[in-house]
């Protein structure tokens, strides 16, 4: 009964999430649908709901109510209307597990917004509201509050999906690279609706990369 009376507010929130999602991904007008597959888009987006969320372990996983029967596959990206969440790791017929960005095995290409300076987004297992961006050269100008987004070196996530903002940064003098604390846009303790992203061009990209690897 409580769920029934919450439907109106939940619907309004989903409408706003979909609007934000469209702005994040395409910055253009596309049909009002959670599943998006247009001639102008390289990505298909499926909606899902979280049924289990871990954020207090070294290697955290999130379970969603979509799986193979709904077209979900390993290595699809997962986001919310606020930013990235993780990558699909395992699937069953109707469920899938996401390797959360709060996972010490996670490694996602990320960059400083409006620049081409990119590094690796990792987690040190400490705070659930922060991750780290590493391998940013010391010559890059940084400011606390700068926005961090996904980079262009991934076949999983589109470029410029929000991640968070720079909380602080330190210079590793011996390696000449910054270690940057990134405060996440997502509240990783309070998640419900998510979106699964499939890059329609990924199989072709992987095939090409495999050919290059074989030639080396």
Description:
With 216 residues, this protein is of the alpha+beta class. 17% of the residues lie in helices and 39% in strands. The protein has a single domain (42-202), classed as Rod shape-determining protein MreC, domain 1 (Thrombin, subunit H), CATH 2.40.10. It is globular, with a radius of gyration of 18 Å.
Supply the number of structural domains.
Answer: 1
CATH topology: Thrombin, subunit H
Supply the CATH class.
Mainly Beta
The value of Rg in angstroms is 18 Å
Give a quick set of tags describing it.
216 residues; alpha+beta; Thrombin, subunit H; six-stranded antiparallel barrel; six-stranded antiparallel β-barrel; 3 helices; 12 strands; disordered N terminus
Topology overview:
Layout: H1 2-5, H2 7-25, E1 43-53, E2 59-64, E3 77-79, E4 84-91, E5 96-103, E6 108-112, E7 118-122, E8 130-137, E9 147-150, E10 162-172, E11 177-184, E12 193-199, H3 202-215
Antiparallel strand pairs: 1-2, 1-12, 2-5, 3-4, 3-12, 4-5, 6-7, 6-9, 7-8, 8-11, 9-10, 10-11
